[in-house]
Design brief:
heterodimer; A: 664 residues; alpha+beta; Phosphoribosyl-aminoimidazole Synthetase, Chain A, domain 2; 60s Ribosomal Protein L30, Chain: A; 7-stranded mixed β-sheet; B: 272 residues; alpha/beta; Rossmann fold; 9-stranded mixed β-sheet; two-stranded antiparallel ribbon; globular
């Protein structure tokens, strides 16, 4: 999972497309075959007032259109399904668009070759090298200014997905025949980092003839060739005796591959251009790092809980929440991504009869196995405005919940930080807090972090980005035939809530709707959560769970509405049965965003088995699935507090981002 | 010809990306299928070793200029003779999505008067515009000529997904009525977009997802041996590829896409 924030701010389409291309090469860079993409995006409000837009900042709507088109274009053209993602809107993303591009690959472990030796040929394969993307990484690590467009436009690369598709085919052939000894992608820094890192990794030096690098056009200076970040290029180390067969595979795919140098015994980096030495450096000089110390200050903002009366019409509030951009259907974007190419997507991004939002995508990547892969994500940037620690904890819990909800097990995590300038002590302070949460929660939930990346210096004329931690979770579904989706299945079934509801509305969508931030950010009781999750997985394994949906933005009411309108069945719920800690208001019970909660549909005949399994857990039946096309909620006094038609709920949810009301 | 003797060539070039699942669909039904890069076929000149030629989905040559056009032109130059023989001998050719665009650009479809030297129709930018990935319903309107629907009763409704940005089938406006009549008269109409009850879309979105003329989703040539369609039968092969399998208590083992491949195999085992 990579970020491509700065390039996407300057050139939305190209920035996002090359973000996808880059992360796919990361996967190829460990010999893996890319099988799915996941993309999480953060934009400013689409109705942002033009007159308030400072010079050099593009309108969120323009950025949104460009970025989503760029992501679709690359994944679709390469034939890698984009199966998972999220779109989040926040004021601070107006000047700092946030673009996370992720890719998942599959690799037979015995094909993972890294045994390069001196004398092996350094082979550059793929696209030609040009001036695009010079200083890309330098640009990515500076703040965006009014001048960024003018100065840094050439730092954004140009995407050519078809080149990468061909490159992928050739690389997989070379991998399967074990013809090469090392591989790495050309990303930030271009050849300069790929060559140096390869040599360093195998304890070698390298000598390179820069004039051999195929160019898009003449006139590049040697230094430009060495640091250009032109796309769709990979670097391989090949034993000399295999060179001809490797070249044949690239030729077969119409991909250019050129031997540009060799690994050497002497630990020096030696660069030549037309026979002339242009650089000659000691490897130690390049890789022995000095230490730097930065100051971090942990600041707790002084925030208070808002005081306001409970709204008289909670049905109306629910409709408004469903239309809130962070909750509303993203169908209009999701359908522009091919999520089915390769024919292995078994749980698709939109679920049920009416395209409800799934919790995680499930792939069946192996033809001869029922094993599946569940991919989900979690992100709660609004909580970070209150406390970075609990934001990070909540993001992890949300990603894990989403994964569990479809039947994911043995979950592993990825972290991606998008932060402001770390030279500023309070920005670094919140980063430290978030990292502490990552450690604490990952150890408590027993979910290892297997990869991650950060993007810092996200500051624009409009200020810093709100600290944003994206957590991606990858789980194994032991048998895809037991996958659970989120849409209600049959009238008469019972609906349970798992997990306790606290008066935690700080940073919630409900507070945001009313113009508040609040201070009661959701906390996480991670060890307790893990024990609960164990039982949920067990219930799923025994086939007791008909549908399951995690509770996140908008809380209980939004989750229940989504399950109902996705499945086309109604629900009748009673708030008096909801296990809670001191929540005395209907709106708080309905919209609190407390962590570690699920709604679970169970058939009447499985009631006692399920309840036995969940004994000692905070789990209670709160209602029934009905034939009525209605969401009906009884309040603490028994009176009806929400009475909403499913079609109307669905319309509220779909209208904001223009998803056409399909199959209505 | 016995089923296991049938040899299918799934042809690919840079940008083709639905080859693996297309091959898998054929293999599932017990025929031999191989993915071959066009470079290999040119080098070995062995296209005629195969009984069926398939152009799978993807973005051949990036679909720059116009979808399918670059691949179609380069094919006619480099493999034109073999393809002519292939067509003359009535060996079946299937084009899925980008493959359909290639067949139209090549002049193999509709092919009112045999293989045309220029495209007689086009598959152009969707209306509403943009790439779209969703499941659609298709009505089989073929009355028996098309080899690829020989086992699907006329009027039956099938379900498959589409995933394209340029799938709007059009004839030249001034000739569209006349050409449509020819299409129907010669039994070249195959699939039309319809709703779940089999009522054709009559141009209404999203039942007709791309604005195709006369809701056309797939057509065949005069002989019924060349078939092109925008939807992806290879993505509707197994039960677990269906969008709603988690809602069903019992799923049939296969999806509707299988019928297309099965029909072809049945045609081959009978004819050759």
């Amino acid at each position: 999972m990579e970020t491509h924030n700065h390039p996407s701010a300057v050139e939305p389409f190209g920035g996002a497309a090359t973000g996808v291309g880059g992360v796919i090469r990361d996967v190829l860079g460990v010999w893996a075959d890319p099988i799915a993409c996941t993309d999480v995006l953060g934009f400013g409000p689409l109705d942002y007032d033009y007159s308030k837009l400072p010079a050099g900042v593009k309108h969120p709507k323009y950025v949104y259109m460009g970025v989503t088109a760029g992501i679709g274009a690359y994944g679709n053209n390469m034939g890698i399904p984009t199966v998972n993602g999220a779109i989040y809107f926040d004021d601070s993303y107006t000047g700092n668009v946030t673009v996370y591009c992720g890719c998942i690959g599959l690799l037979p472990l015995n094909k993972f070759k890294k045994n390069a030796k001196p004398n092996h040929v350094i082979l550059l394969a793929g696209g030609k090298t040009g001036r695009d993307g010079i200083h890309g990484v330098t640009f990515a690590s500076a703040e965006l200014t009014e001048k960024s467009e003018e100065i840094s436009r050439p730092a954004v690369q140009i995407a050519d997905p078809i080149e990468e598709e061909k490159l992928k085919r050739a690389i997989i052939e070379v991998r399967d025949r074990e013809l090469a000894s090392a591989i790495t992608d050309l990303g930030g820094g271009g050849l300069s980092s790929a060559v140096g890192e390869t040599a360093e990794k195998f304890g070698c030096g390298a000598t390179l003839a820069l004039d051999k690098v195929p160019l898009k056009y003449q006139g590049l200076a040697p230094w430009e060739i060495y640091i250009s970040e032109s796309q769709e290029r990979m670097l391989l180390a090949v034993p000399p005796e295999n060179l001809d067969s490797v070249m044949a595979f690239f030729e077969q795919e119409d991909v250019e591959a050129t031997a540009i140098g060799t690994l050497t015994t002497e630990r020096r980096l030696h660069l030549e251009y037309s026979g002339e030495t242009v650089a000659d450096l000691d490897m130690a000089f390049l890789f022995d790092m000095g230490e730097s110390t930065k100051k971090a200050v942990i600041q707790t903002p002084r925030l208070t809980e808002p005081e306001f009366a409970e709204p008289a019409n909670l049905t109306e509030t629910l409709m408004q929440l469903l239309s809130a951009p962070n909750i509303a259907s993203k169908e209009s974007v999701v359908r522009t991504y091919d999520h089915e190419v390769k024919g292995n997507t078994t749980l698709k991004p939109l679920q049920g009869k009416y395209a409800g939002p799934n919790d995680a995508a499930v792939l069946k990547p192996l033809d001869n196995s029922w094993k599946g892969l569940a991919i989900s994500c979690g992100m709660n940037p609004n909580y970070g405005k209150i406390d970075a620690y609990w934001m990070a904890a909540s993001a992890i819990d949300e990603a894990v919940r989403n994964n569990l909800a479809v039947g994911g097990q043995r979950i592993a995590l990825l972290d991606n930080f998008t932060w402001g300038n770390p030279e500023k002590p309070e920005r670094l302070g919140s980063l430290v807090r978030a990292c502490e949460a990552c450690y604490d929660v990952a150890t408590a939930l027993r979910t290892p972090f297997i990869s991650g990346k950060d993007s810092l210096y996200n500051e624009s004329p409009l200020g810093p980005v709100t600290p944003t931690l994206l957590i991606t979770a990858v789980g194994i579904v032991p048998d895809i035939r037991s996958t659970v989706s989120m849409d209600l299945k049959a009238p008469g079934n019972l609906l349970y809530i798992l997990g306790e509801t606290y008066p935690e509305l700080g940073g919630s969508e409900y507070y945001r709707l009313n113009g508040f931030l609040g201070s009661s950010v959701p906390k996480l009781h991670a060890t307790k959560a893990r024990r609960t999750y164990y039982n949920l997985t067990k219930a799923m394994g025994e086939g007791l769970v008909k549908s399951c949906h995690d509770l996140s933005e908008g809380g209980l009411a939004v989750a229940a509405a989504e399950m109902a309108f996705a499945g086309g069945y109604g629900l009748e719920l009673d708030l008096r049965s909801v296990p809670n800690k001191l929540v005395a208001r209907h709106d708080f019970l309905l919209f609190s965003e407390s962590n570690s909660r699920f709604l679970i549909e169970v058939a009447e005949q499985d009631r006692s088995v399920f309840e036995d399994l969940m004994r000692s857990k905070a789990c209670a039946p709160i209602g029934k699935v009905t034939k009525d096309q209605k969401l009906l909620v009884h309040g603490l006094n028994g009176k009806v507090v929400v009475d909403a038609g499913l079609a109307e709920l669905r319309r509220s949810w779909k209208k904001t981002l223009g998803a056409e009301a399909q199959s209505e | 010809m016995r089923r296991e003797e049938i040899k299918v060539c799934v042809m690919r070039v840079g940008g083709t990306n639905c080859d693996a699942e297309t091959k898998r669909a054929f293999q599932e039904l017990g025929v031999q299928a191989k993915v071959l890069h066009v470079n290999e076929l040119i080098k070995h000149g062995n296209l005629l070793d195969y009984n069926v030629l398939v152009f799978p989905g993807g973005f051949s040559f990036g679909d720059y200029v116009r979808s399918g056009v670059i691949f179609a032109r380069s094919l006619s130059v480099k493999l034109g003779k073999e393809i002519d023989t292939f067509v003359d001998e009535g060996r079946p050719i299937l084009g899925i999505c980008n493959g359909f665009q290639i067949l139209v650009e090549y002049g193999l479809l509709p092919g009112f008067e045999g293989v045309s030297t220029y495209p007689e129709a086009t598959l152009t930018t969707n209306v509403p515009q943009g790439f779209k990935c969703q499941w659609v319903h298709l009505k089989n309107e073929n009355k028996g000529k098309c080899a690829f629907t020989s086992k699907i009763p006329t009027g039956n409704v099938l379900r498959m997904p589409i995933a394209h940005g340029e799938g709007r089938f059009l004839f030249p406006v001034e000739k569209e009525k006349q050409m449509l009549q020819k299409l129907i008269d010669n039994d070249m109409m195959v699939f039309r977009y319809c709703d779940e009850n089999g009522v054709v879309a009559d141009g209404t979105y999203p039942t007709n997802p791309n604005g195709a003329f006369h809701d056309i989703a797939g057509i065949c040539n005069r002989e019924g041996t060349i078939f092109g369609l925008m939807p992806h039968p290879e993505r509707a092969m197994y039960w677990w590829q269906q969008p709603d399998w988690t809602r069903q208590t019992r799923m049939p083992q296969y999806g509707d896409g299988k019928l297309v491949f099965e029909s072809l195999i049945s045609h081959l085992t009978k004819k050759f």
